[in-house]
Structures are given as structure tokens and as C-alpha cells.
Amino acid sequence: MRELLRRLIDGAGALAGVFVLLIFLVMIVSTVMRTLGMRTGGTDDIVSWMTAAAAFFGLAHTFRHGDFVRVVLVLDKLGPRARHWAELAALAVGTAFTGYIALSVTRYVIDSWQFGDMAGGLVVIPIWIPQSSIAIGSTLLFIAMADQFVHVLRGNRPDYVVAVEERHARGDFSEDV
User: Fold this and answer.
1) Domain ranges of the chain
2) CA–CA distance, 133 with 32 (Å, rounded to integer)
């Protein structure tokens, strides 16, 4: 089951990368069109939706690979047992918080769908469509955090800590800047 979750999270991370590429392409095409005197109405709407999609689809992948901002100054001073309990406490709070966010955002998207809300910009589409990426991304982050909580509760080291240590062992400190 964890392998399926890993693949799902990696797929969401790849999808986030696709959205970043699409943002680049839309902005380049928009710039060329403006230079040629052509209208580019709606590109700002599209780019903003893709930015949200890129950010939220990338959350779980970023978390799982240890690229989230973590303050480890206190954790580094703790012994192994105290560190384990501190990680569990942080994961419990994070899981509860992201669960609340995922639930709230998903309810909001469902409401938008049920009420037939439309986007208010130049591109008029049902707003639940771009909002769905936020609901899916936050739900994936919740599942990833809950998985890590259970993983650490069983006595294992968090995947994000292992990922950072493996990166450091290869001499890659690029994410620590």
C-alpha cells in the first residue's frame, strides 16, 4: 500500500512539474502575442490557476522528500527517544491540521460545484475545475502526513529524514540553502 501511495505522490509531483512547464509556455506565448499586437485576454486567469495547481500538487511530494521547511534546531539537540516523540507530536499536529484543510477545501469545492459558481475573470468556466487541484493536493498532503505518522508510530524513521540524509551522503546540500 505504501508503494502505491509513493507512486501516487510521485505522480502528483510530476504533474506539478508539468504545470510549471505549462505556466512557462503560456507566459512565453502571451509575451509573443502581445509583441505582435494580439489580444491575450484570460492568460492571467489561466496562469493563476496553473500556479495553484503546481503548488498544491507538489505539496505531498515535497513533504515526502524532505524538502519542506523544517526547523530542526531543537530536534538536533534531542536524544533519539525524545526526538522520536517530538517527530510524532509534530506529525500528529501536522496531520490534524492538513486533514482540516483538506476537508474544508474539499467541502468548498463541492459547494462551488453544487451552486454552479463560475470563475469571475475573463475565462469563464466552472470554478470548481481549477479549485479541484487545491482539494486533491491538500488531500494528498494529508494522506502523506498520516502515512508518516503511522510509519513513525511503528518505530520507523520518517521518510523525509531518510531522504535528506541520503541526499547529504551524496554530497548534495542544495536543499539546505
Assistant:
1) 2-176
2) 28
At 177 the pLDDT is: 60
In terms of Cβ atoms closer than 10 Å to its own Cβ (0-12, 13-18, 19+), residue 81 is exposed
Read off the DSSP letter of residue 78: S
Evaluated on CA atoms 65, 67, 16, 172, the torsion sign reads negative
pLDDT along the chain (177 residues), means of 10: 93 97 96 93 93 96 83 81 92 97 97 95 93 97 96 92 83 72
SS3 per residue for 89-125: HHHHHHHHHHHHHHHHHHHHHHHHHHHCCECCCCCCC
Three-class secondary structure of residue 126 per DSSP = strand
